[in-house]
Design goal:
Rossmann fold; binds guanosine-5'-triphosphate; binds magnesium ion; 239 residues; globular
């Protein structure tokens, strides 16, 4: 097994309201990093992190799960937290073990109760926070409306680093304001160069993501090989 220096390991927690797209985002990250060959779908019950029978049956996450990805030589342990209020104990436990929090917000539903709860828990823990506005391809999605809500809820410290290219059916990728690059399907719609991020080659082996308990975060309870499906979901992020 490959070993990593401690300086090359990150532990990141995905949090957000139920159904905002955390499990799907983790699938996209695994696929983009080359850890899986196809994206699983929550609807098909074949995602890496929702594998408990209850999760497959209900189509929601009910406990914390973790899957590792490697990106540019850094091992990123991504923890997928359940979003429903009943399982907030898992979020509280995981926050003690991570380096940073990624808050996933639906561009259709905007800031919701568990968005605020998760944000406050991360603030209390003094953790760095980033926000991903997801579901931009959905009908009634609005990046600007969601960004305005985020600024109203969390203050002007919230500022966009990437902007979507199109919305709803026209959603076509993202433009990175710092790198002045873009990634997406149609690379000709702006003058900016396409993003230089590349999926690593030779890393197609499926990972065996350990399941971690929300109550005892240090214990990996069981492992499972990520499964695959024939129909990938829309990717919330491509870079
Ligand atoms: N169109 C579209 N659908 C998405 C996107 N992200 C997630 N979904 C769908 O939204 C639903 C909920 O996604 P999940 O990934 O289960 O959301 P979650 O945040 O993990 O939900 P909980 O674990 O219950 O908190 C599923 O039907 C996904 O297929 C997206 O970017 N676009
Ligand atoms: Mg989930």
């Amino acid at each position: 097994m490959k070993t990593y220096d401690a300086s090359d390991i990150r532990n990141i927690l995905l949090v957000g309201h139920g159904g905002s797209g955390k499990t799907t985002l983790l699938e996209a990250m695994l696929f983009t990093a080359g850890a899986t060959t196809r994206m699983g779908r929550v609807e098909d019950g074949n995602t890496a992190s929702d594998f408990e029978p209850e999760e497959v049956k209900k189509g929601i996450s009910v406990s914390l799960a973790m899957a590792p990805i490697e990106w540019n030589g850094v091992k990123i342990n991504v923890l997928d937290a359940p979003g429903y209020a009943d399982f907030v104990g898992d979020v509280r436990s995981a926050i003690q073990a991570v380096d940073a929090v990624l808050v996933v917000v639906s561009a259709v539903d905007g800031v919701e109760v568990q968005t605020e709860v998760a944000w406050e828990l991360a603030v209390e823990a003094g953790l760095p926070r980033a926000i991903l506005i997801n579901k931009l391809d959905r009908e009634r999605a609005s990046f600007q409306r969601t960004l305005d809500q985020l600024v109203r809820s969390f203050g002007t410290q919230v500022a966009p680093l990437e902007l979507p290219l199109g919305e709803e059916h026209d959603f076509d990728g993202v433009a990175d304001l710092l790198l002045q690059s873009r990634s997406g399907r149609n690379t000709t719609s702006t003058g900016w160069p396409t993003c230089s991020c590349r999926r690593p080659t030779g890393t197609t082996a499926a990972p065996r993501p350990p399941r971690v308990s929300g109550r005892t975060t240090s214990t990996a309870r069981r492992t499972r090989t990520a499964r695959s499906s024939s129909k990938p979901s829309p990717s919330p992020t491509t870079c």
